[in-house]
Structures are given as C-alpha cells and as structure tokens.
Amino acid sequence: MPAKRLKEVCPVCGSSELYYEMGGYTGKIYHCKNCDYVGPLVVEADEEMIKALKESYRNPEKPAGEG
Ligand SMILES: [Zn+2]
C-alpha cells in the first residue's frame, strides 16, 4: 500500500490556501487566505483529514467524532 501524501493545510478550516507572512524574529508565520488564521502551526493532513477539517469548520455545531 503506498503511503498517503500529506498536505500542509490550515488547522482551522482545512484550506491549503496558506501563505507565509513576513515573520522577522518570530520565524515562519502562516496566513490562511480562506479563514484569516494567522499562526506558526499548520496541519499535515491527508485527503480524509482535510475533508473532516473542512466539514467541522462549516458545521461547528456538529459534535466531533460522530459519523
Ligand atoms: Zn483557514
């Protein structure tokens, strides 16, 4: 079984529309174009994880872990 390719995505909304902010002394800062998340962390996710992130972002009232 081939390893799944992981993609760096926004931890909030699952978007891959991430850009580096000009960091300076804080180092790398990512900026999500989709939800305006700004921070040093991104998630390495496969397609299923990305899908789950996007769904929980769109439906925040839905309890996690269901389904
Ligand atoms: Zn985002």
Quick synopsis:
By secondary structure, the protein is an alpha+beta fold. It is built from 1 helix and 5 strands, in the order E-E-E-E-E-H. It has one helix spanning 47-58; strands at 7-9, 18-21, 29-32, 38-39, 43-45.
Kindly describe this structure.
The chain has one domain. The strands form two sheets. The chain has a three-stranded antiparallel sheet, with no helix packed on it. A hairpin with a 5-residue loop joins strand 3 and strand 4. The model has no long low-confidence stretch (mean pLDDT about 85). It is of the alpha+beta class and about 70 residues long. The protein is built from one helix and five strands. The protein is flat and about 40 Å long. About 5% of the residues are buried. Helix content is about 20%, strand content about 25%. The chain binds zinc ion. The site of zinc ion (ZN) has 8 residues, from loops.
